[in-house]
């Protein structure tokens, strides 16, 4: 609500252009009507931003890329992938013997892109949910035996999925398990689940501030993506292309 008020305040003060930088887009998971009478909240947020007066949106790793189509104004959906690749190469000594794993079928495109750029293999886990935030059954597709498994997803909320996935990978023979996430929401029992899980590290970007969470969980590490957003703002302001940021980390 504060963002909408600030956008409107800028607009009625005769700003020529208003760009909203939203690192973690709200209600991004409610992007379709998956059951009767369910709201499409992401579309509602898009409408409110447009009506408030936003001319341009900059965000990162949308849960579903089709959310860009909810807007009639330009949307730059930046990717954390270049920063994730850099972190893997610099912090995981055995990264050449790793396997990139998606905790659900929907993230297959994301993990194949990372696996291709690292020149390693990938696997995925098929999960069945009985209700929201509760996973009923998991099936691993791929061979993780004697490898370092790196779980990659766009967000984690209560962390039930990634913690179940970590157990599944270790039981399948993985030597170590890392989790790399763009948006670490970490609500409810998430922190206690991470502390009790067998992760070497749970790595998140700072699209959501993590200082308080890190005090209660030593496994959480943060990738700073402020330079990516700063460069996107600079390029947008100067009328330059932001495509470079889709595959490179600005210096």
What does this structure look like?
The chain has eight helices and ten strands. The protein has helices at residues 2-12, 41-52, 81-91, 108-118, 160-171, 190-196, 211-216, 226-237; strands at residues 19-22, 56-60, 75-78, 98-102, 121-131, 134-141, 148-156, 176-184, 201-205, 220-223. The strands form two sheets. Strands 6-5-4-7-8-9-10 form a seven-stranded mixed β-sheet. It has a three-stranded parallel β-sheet with strand order 1-2-3, with helices on one face. Strand 4 (98-102), helix 4 (108-118) and strand 5 form a beta-alpha-beta unit. The protein folds into two domains: 1-78, Rossmann fold, CATH 3.40.50; 80-224, 3-Layer(aba) Sandwich (Rossmann fold), CATH 3.40.50. The longest helix is centred in the first third of the chain and has 12 residues, at 41-52. The chain is α/β, with parallel strands linked by helices. The protein is 33% helix and 25% strand. Pathway: Metabolic intermediate biosynthesis; 5-phospho-alpha-D-ribose 1-diphosphate biosynthesis; 5-phospho-alpha-D-ribose 1-diphosphate from D-ribose 5-phosphate (route I): step 1/1. Belongs to the ribose-phosphate pyrophosphokinase family. It is an enzyme of class 2 (transferase). Pfam families: Pribosyl_synth (PF14572), Pribosyltran_N (PF13793).
